[in-house]
Amino acid sequence: MADAPAHPERTPAQIEVEGEIAADYLETLLDLADMDGDIDVQHEADRAVVSIVDSEEGTVPRRLAGPGAQVLEALQELSRLAVQAETGERSRLMVDVAGYRADRRKALEQLADRTVEAVRESGTERSLEPMTAFERKVVHDRVLAGGLHSSSAGEEPNRYVVVSPAPAGE
Fold first, then answer.
1. Of 12, 22, 9, which is closest to residue 83 (Cα–Cα)?
2. Architecture of the domain delimited by 102-164
3. pLDDT for position 64
4. Residue limits of the R3H domain (predicted)?
């Protein structure tokens, strides 16, 4: 018997509701912490992206992402739990703080490009540092676009990407 998909297709209306719930939750957290920041909700593919951005009252401290984005990941997980508590459905929403994820994506794409070139030149696989699921996805997509093979290895929170030459015939 086939398993149900982990994340069934979301309608635009469901994505919008998820974004609104998460935005309200994050706004409350900012108020409790007496921090400035506005909430921006966008749709990216099949998920809501909720960003804490600068407001007229002040700038969002980049440190809110935390070392290694640990605080950002916690804010995202708490926001997903708030959505699940209200809707009864798991959410794939993404939270960003002060453009951290966009900057991190760019750095990861550059890392993936350098790694693809190194693997092509050497013909041997390379292992990267541990990454979050979001970060691994960015690298996997870039490696695939570069024509090589990648896989994840290790156990959370220390899962990492292994980039290897494409198997013969691909």
1. 22
2. 2-Layer Sandwich (3.30)
3. 85
4. 102-167
Confidence of residue 3 (pLDDT cuts 50, 70, 90): very low
Residue by residue, DSSP assigns the chain as: -PPPPSSPPPPHHHHHHHHHHHHHHHHHHHHHTT---EEEEEEETTEEEEEEE-BTTBPPPGGGG-GGGHHHHHHHHHHHHHHHHHHSS----EEEETTHHHHHHHHHHHHHHHHHHHHHHH-S-EEPPP--HHHHHHHHHHHHHTT-EEEEES-TTS-EEEEEPPPTT-
Predicted confidence band at 35 (pLDDT cuts at 50, 70, 90)?
Answer: confident
Q: Where are the domains of the chain?
A: 12-98, 102-164
Q: What is the CATH number of domain 12-98?
A: 3.30.300.20
Show Cβ contacts of residue 73 under 8 Å, excluding neighbours closer than 6 positions. Answer: 132
Q: In which residue are the tokens 């998920």 written?
A: 47
C-beta separation of 50 from 95 below 8 A: yes
Three-point CA angle 25, 27, 32, nearest 5°? 95
